[in-house]
Amino acid sequence: MAAAAPTPGRITRSTSARPSPVRTSVAIASRAGRTDFVRVTLAWHDGRLVATPAGAQVSGHLTPQAHADGLLVVPESAESLAMGEAAEAILWSCPSR
Length: 97
Fold this sequence. Notes:
It contains one helix and seven strands, in the order E-E-E-E-H-E-E-E. The protein is mainly beta. The strands form two sheets. Strands 1-4-3-5-7 form a five-stranded mixed β-barrel. Strands 2-6 form a two-stranded antiparallel sheet. The chain is globular and about 35 Å long. The relative contact order is 0.35.
């Protein structure tokens, strides 16, 4: 079952952990064999929600955590996600178009 896209045009707050479809704005490295969650900011481009890493992905860095709109899910089977690749993200906010 495909995930539903978030409602555009207003900021939304999600209480659901259901992933939403996004595209990556840059290549994202990962390690095969584990699921990674990358803090991302979101923006609309050509009618699609695009995810960009929100700074350093270090647990002690609070600024990227504060600015993130959600978590990009890098599946256990993936060693990386290519720029523009379809992916899923767990969102807690969604930008206006």
